[in-house]
Amino acid sequence: MEPFSIRAGNNSDPTDLPKNMIATEPKKGESKKDKRRYVRFTTEDGGTVEGTVSEKRGSSKISGMDLRFNQCYFVEEIGRVGRLWVNREIRNDDDLSADLQRFEQITEVEDDSKIPTAPVVSVENLRKWYPLKRGFFETVFSKEEMNVKAVDDVSFNLSKGEIFALAGESGSGKTTLGKVVLRLVAPSSGRIFFLGQDITKLSDKEMKPLRRAMQIVFQDPFESLDPRMTIKEIVAEPLRVQGTVEVDGSGRPRTRKMGEREVEERVKKMLSEVELVPPEEFLYRFPHEMSGGQRQRVAVARAFVLNPSFIVADEPVSMLDVSIRAEIVNLMVDLVKKSQASILFISHDIALAKHIADRIAVLYLGKMMELGAAETLVDLPLHPYTQALVSAVPVPDPESKRMKDVISGEIPSPVDPPSGCRFHTRCPYAHERCVMEEPTLVEVEKSHYVACHLYT
Amino acid sequence: MRAVENISFSVEQGEALGIAGESGSGKSTVALSLLRILPQGGYIRKGKITFQGQDLTSLPENEMRKIRWKGISIVFQGAMNAMNPVYKVGDQIAEAIKLHEKGVTEADVKERVAKLLETVGIEPSRANNYPHEFSGGMRQRALIAMALAANPVMLIGDEPGTALDVIVQAQTLRLLRDLKDRLGLAMILISHDLSIIAETCEKVAIMYAGKIVEYGDVVSIFKNPLHPYTQGLIKAFPSIKGEKVRLSSIPGQPPDLLHPPPACRFNPRCPYVMDVCKKEEPLLADHEKGHLVACHLY
Hints:
Helix content of chain A is about 25%, strand content about 25%.
């Protein structure tokens, strides 16, 4: 989609739009005559607005939308409103319904599928720096601050039902990124949106109801399950903590504690979904009575039991034997398809990522080097680092002995990353510009982004 | 528990044998048996290990000590923990040289250490560093240098590079292959990763539940895998090449060696299981020109 810009202008006139607006051309199959456009822009207070715009006599307009608001509200599922994502402050229900009526006028769309879905998770310029502990004298005499730049200026969107893989060597910051997105650790700067809501600054208490919709599967099923809890207790714990949500008479969602029988039913159902059958046989077992593969199924069951919309899977199969790895991966892919959850799949195994992910992002020293559709990125990698990563993967074919070149060196320290392009110290194509200037992530082919001076 | 049962193979000089299998298949036990360093309680019940004409199983302990390091040397997995953190890397390599060669001079040792480090691609001046000052890949290299300290005839690599990143792993394997060719080492590479073996070894033994189920040269095993377990294992690897596919796996669990399944140990997971598989154990037999398989299908 080729972005085109729309002029910025005076805020008092609703037909004038704020700065940094981008709008996309009609999607494939949609005629240019179709007046609806999908837009996304930054408001003056730094928020984001996304929605469709109808064009009237040549002037772009979002009718009646007040742009002073500073909170996001996700109105995806309300009637014919379609998917409109706006920055606004909702004071009370009257405000909301009045606004919704206004939106309805501009988004009368015959076919819902023509409007792109708002992302489930959206990350903008995310940074996570860890200050380095220093001795007393250094603190006193040296002004310079030292930081481990674990994640440095990363942005991406995750749409509904998408499997998004983060690939990179250890030390590339992929695990930190996963934790920051879930707000398990606080970001140093940048913004995180979850279902349209800015969660960057939410308190733990405010996060708790959202945790229902965001879950994690850890790498090692031998450590991530409490050895003193039965399988039933492990899978039931999220249900007990979060309860269940019901819509009451007035149409408001209410959280309710679950009864013991209800919990057991849900746990059993979940266990059969992860193919631990018959579930009765597993309910009262302890983790040590199960094999690695079965334990990881329990961890998957625990993550999916609340029907989350977003799951971070941090190397979920790298501790498992090869012969059972595929089973767990396929199980997760099937659950994602069924529940339409989105997954951030963290993996050092780019070959595995190719087969299960929709898109892959390659990280190096906390920076995104390349982002694209999984197959394209692996088959035709653009960034020299991705090329190195792909060619280093061993191939189960004895006739293609690895005579190809392996790049030398190892990932440098994230405390003092190389200047300019962080990969220039190991890059076979590095030139002067790479040392001086940091490349930005640009779209070089359709939906294929790369941060490398070779392409600019 | 019988960790390894009835296994035979041979390795020539300048040749690499890969032993592949899942965790619990007994592949590491094979390595430890060769060096007679089995954990306490473990012992070799039967069989022979012939190394340069000598049977290692019947050697007295003090003779065996001469074989270790000088004859057969091992690189363990887990490059992060295999070195002593309070000694300098160079001193740890020097210790191995001094132990195995009586009467070497201090200057000689120093020179040898520098040369060894150079062989594995580490700047010799780094000998004065402590292990924590080395990166993961460098520690793995230093361990290889240490294993080569007494000029061994044979090198065993137990999952070398497994804990390392792909690029560093590729560097390590490349180094091992170069060393094998340059020094004419006999090598045994133990790994759960078939692709690593495909890229580095000439011969492969596939182990399942303590037994070799298939054995042969690397090309015929990968191009024409005979045993259903080998076929499943090869298919289970996501290939970086080719179309995007749904991954396939071997259903079921690796067996519990305390209660192994009767007859063919793979029968509960085998897609081609027949009646005979549950009654009679298949023997490892030559299928064609040195390609051995233990399966009733053949």
